[in-house]
Amino acid sequence: MINKIVEGFSKLNKEEKINWLVDNYTNNPQTIKKILTQYWNEDSEIQKLHEEFSENTISNFYMPFGIAPNFLINGSIYAIPMVIEESSVVAAASKSAKFWLERGGFKTKILGNLKLGHVHFLYKGDKSKLNNWFSNYLKNILLIETEEITKNMRNRGGGITNIELLDKTNDLNDYFQIQVTFDTQDSMGANFINSCLEQMSRIIIEQIQRSEMFTQIEKESLQIVMSILSNYTPNCIARAEVSCKIEDLGDENGISSEDFAWKFEQAICIAEVDPFRAATHNKGIMNGVDSVVIATGNDFRAVEACVHTYASRTGKYKSLTHCYIENGKFHYWIDLPLAIGIVGGLTQLHPLVIASLQILGNPSAEKLMQIIAVAGLAQNFAAIRSLITSGIQKGHMKMHLLNILNQLGATEQEKQYLVNYFKDKTVSYHQVISEFNKLKKQ
Ligand code: MEV
């Protein structure tokens, strides 16, 4: 009998989990079981390590780990590891890297490295009492009462840099926040921030009960709703930029440098004014950003959430890259909020993450932020460059050709022949099938 509901799934061992799953959820249990077990690492230590990252793990999910070489960043050369399944992204990044290598490279800097967290609470009493209590008493107590948690971070040069009381009652009745600013040094800092905030929420309740300033009704009206970091970090920003004389922009696609610069600027302007284009424009940037974020074991969902919030900070969703032309020079840059780390989380656990960080020269978190911003800018440059000249499909489909051939079940020999055949032709799905069928008939 099919049984789609299970009790105690997490208690089953890996094989029992798989057996239950394939028996109850698939039509071909043996085949699916074979696929799932095929992806187990033959080294049981490595397999165990990966299983323990998450819960109910039954297999591993491979992603291509690629390298985009030749990135000149602030005078040093980097080979950037990128984990991404989409064809043509790594090739595009590499092409941009080469282009800017010959034009002075990328310049980067950190505009800020602070993170935020909030104790969200409701309070129905006298606001001025709350303000006075916070400024004259609570703020200091919160710092003292979190000293145990912040000790190590303070020793490393970080910790809590500010605590504010924010009145949000214009947005929601009785709503206030304790907003805490953190410097988490080389860690992304999520656990550190959340531990501090949860400790603070306990102290707030404890302290208001003891206070003689508030009436009993006011004391009881203060309700903590939740304490959590914000994934929006507008003060944790890396800037990456490039610039060159317009005449040095010379493009291989037969467009003049002046036309290229002008059209490029227009493409950025369009993404500044039109959210439909901005979404696609920024998606391309995130192809570069996410792939380095994943390769270095960071939380790409956090980065995505932050970046898109930042892109809409003016109330309108806009381009993350910017461009202007002045005195015959082309200037192009990106400001990216990136809350990432090189310690904590998976960063020191996943062998491929350790390898990625080493390939990048074991950067500090700030350096890694700058490398990631470069990957985003490079990706956008490659996309816009194609879009305003040859169109995106030419390069993209060429890179996608192998996927199509694999889907068709082409042999190595057939692949070789067809890759060679399409070298100087436009690749379309239709055309590939037609040429493949012709080859088969021969
Ligand atoms: C595809 O993954 C990304 C692009 O659509 C980005 C863009 O249009 O700028 C090529």
Automatic annotation (TrEMBL):
Sample GO molecular function, one term: hydroxymethylglutaryl-CoA reductase (NADH) activity
Pfam family, one: HMG-CoA_red
Pathways per UniProt: Metabolic intermediate metabolism; (R)-mevalonate degradation; (S)-3-hydroxy-3-methylglutaryl-CoA from (R)-mevalonate: step 1/1
Domain of life, per lineage: Bacteria
GO terms under biological process: coenzyme A metabolic process
Documented EC number(s): 1.1.1.88
Keyword Oxidoreductase: yes
Keywords for this protein: NAD, Oxidoreductase
The keyword NAD belongs to this UniProt entry's keyword annotation: yes
Reaction equations catalysed: (R)-mevalonate + 2 NAD(+) + CoA = (3S)-3-hydroxy-3-methylglutaryl-CoA + 2 NADH + 2 H(+)
Gene3D superfamilies (UniProt xref): 1.10.8.660, 3-hydroxy-3-methylglutaryl-coenzyme A Reductase, Chain A, domain 2
Entry similarity comment: Belongs to the HMG-CoA reductase family.
Name of the protein described by the UniProt record: 3-hydroxy-3-methylglutaryl coenzyme A reductase
